[in-house]
Every structure is written in structure tokens, then in C-alpha cells.
Design goal:
Layout: H1 2-25, H2 30-47, H3 54-77, H4 89-116
Helix pairs in contact: 1-4, 2-3, 2-4, 3-4
């Protein structure tokens, strides 16, 4: 158990830094984030032909997520267009959170796809 505590000692500051960005700019609930990010990750994993393209699909997933974050309020509530706060550090923490999430999610879903569709 001491080993796990030692690993968590290294991971916890990084998680706190990433989560601060999500807390500032993320969805109102984990459910809404999970639905939006889950659909994007599934599509990215299904489109990925080989694992060597994981970084490209991670970047594309983050870009699609940021675009959907900005367009969804316009479609749902008729809100006016607003540029994302590109100069705010907590916004880039949110983008980094998305990048880590999509890297892990697309990797896991790509591995599952590889197990299910071995003939392709």
C-alpha cells in the first residue's frame, strides 16, 4: 500500500492542476461531460486505423470538443457567439485535461475495437 501512496504523491499535484481547469471551464456535471466526450472518443476510436495515429486523433478530439463546447449554447439556448478565453491559464488547463482524457479514452476504446474487430 505504501507503493500506491508514493505513486499518488506524484500523480495528485498533476491531477489537481488538470482538475482546476475542468472546474473553471468544464461542463456543469460529469454526466454532460461524459456524454459529449464519450461520443467524440468513440467516433475517434472507430476512425483510427492504427495506434500510431493516436496523437493526431487526440488533437482532433480536443478540437472537436472545444468547438462543441462553444457551439452547443448557441444551438440550445440561442446564445450569441463568444470566443473562448485563450489568454486564461485555467482555460489551457482545461484543454490539457481534455488532451489527457482523449489520449486515455481513445487508447482504451481503440484496444477494445482491436479485440472485437480482429479481421479488419
Amino acid at each position: 500500500m505504501d507503493f500506491v501512496n508514493q505513486i499518488w504523491g506524484y500523480v495528485e499535484p498533476v491531477w489537481a492542476w488538470l482538475h482546476a481547469g475542468y472546474a473553471a471551464h468544464g461542463a456543469d456535471s460529469w454526466t454532460m461531460f461524459g456524454i459529449q466526450a464519450g461520443v467524440i472518443a468513440i467516433v475517434m476510436a472507430l476512425l483510427m486505423q492504427s495506434y500510431s495515429a493516436i496523437l493526431i486523433f487526440t488533437v482532433v478530439g480536443v478540437i472537436v470538443h472545444v468547438v462543441v463546447d462553444n457551439v452547443l449554447p448557441m444551438v440550445r439556448e440561442g446564445a450569441s457567439f463568444a470566443m473562448p478565453p485563450f489568454t486564461a491559464m485555467d482555460y489551457w488547463q482545461y484543454v490539457a485535461f481534455l488532451a489527457v482524457f482523449y489520449f486515455v479514452a481513445i487508447t482504451v476504446l481503440g484496444a477494445i475495437k482491436g479485440m472485437l474487430f480482429r479481421g479488419e
